Amino acid sequence: MNLVKRNPEWYGPASVDAFFDRFFNDSLQKNHNGFSPKVDIAETAKAFEIQVAVPGFNKSDFSIDLKEGKLSITGERKLEKENKEKNFISIQTEYGKFYKSFQLPDNIDEKGIEAVYENGILELRIPKDETKKVESKIAVK
Q: What pLDDT score was predicted for residue 44?
C-alpha cells in the first residue's frame, strides 16, 4: 500500500469564485514574474495605516512614490537561482516584482508620511491633516 499525501485542492475549490480567483491570480503571477502581496488598511482618528506583507525583502528593494494623491509601492525580490549548494525541492514563497497603488483622500498630510520595514511587514503611516476636512452635506431632492 502506498501512502499519498492528500491535497484538498484536488477535490475542488471551496467556491467557484475562489477557483477563478486562484486561476487568474496564479496565471498572472507566473506569466509576468510578479505577485500581489497581501495588504491590510486601517484608519485611526489621526492617520491611515497600510501594512504590506512582503517577507524576505530588504529595505532597499522598495520604491514608494506619491504623485497627485496616488501612493504607489513597488518592490522586487529575486530568486537565488545560481547557487550550486542548493537544490530547491519546493518554492512556496513569492518572488518577482509587485506593484500596489492607493488613491489617498484629500485630508492627508503628505509631508508626514512614514514608512518602516520590520519583520516582513512594510508599514506606511499616513497622517491626517485636521485643517483639511473632507465633509459635505448632500441634500435629498
A: 94
